[in-house]
Structure formats: structure tokens, C-alpha cells
Amino acid sequence: MEGHCLTDIELEDEFFKLQARMIDVGILKGLTHPETIKYSQELDMIINHFQKVSSQY
């Protein structure tokens, strides 16, 4: 994702893919597993981006 400018649609698609991965990893490895937390943090960045963009309107 870094170094590549994504459209809002691509970013939304990436959000849902990451969300599904985070849920799968959370179920398999636990909610406090580093991989689950990594996906959660990536999702937070996407959410923050959408909130920042939507607040500009």
C-alpha cells in the first residue's frame, strides 16, 4: 500500500480484504497475536484516511 496512491474504491476493497484476514487470523491465532494486531493497525490507518477525507467535505 505504501508508495502507491489508491483510489477510494481500491482502498475500500483493501479494507474489506484486510478485515477478513484479521478476523481469520484472530480466530486461528487469537486476538492478541502480533499478526492480528498488525492487520488491526493497517485497518486503523485506512479508517483514519477515510475520516480525514470525509471531514474535508
From TrEMBL:
Pfam families according to UniProt: SpoOE-like
Task: Give the InterPro entries listed for this entry.
Answer: HLH_DNA-bd_sf (IPR036638), Spo0E-like (IPR018540), Spo0E-like_sf (IPR037208)
One annotated GO biological process: regulation of sporulation
Taxonomic superkingdom: Bacteria
What terms describe the molecular function in GO for this protein? protein dimerization activity
Q: Which protein, by its recorded name, is this?
A: Aspartyl-phosphate phosphatase Spo0E family protein
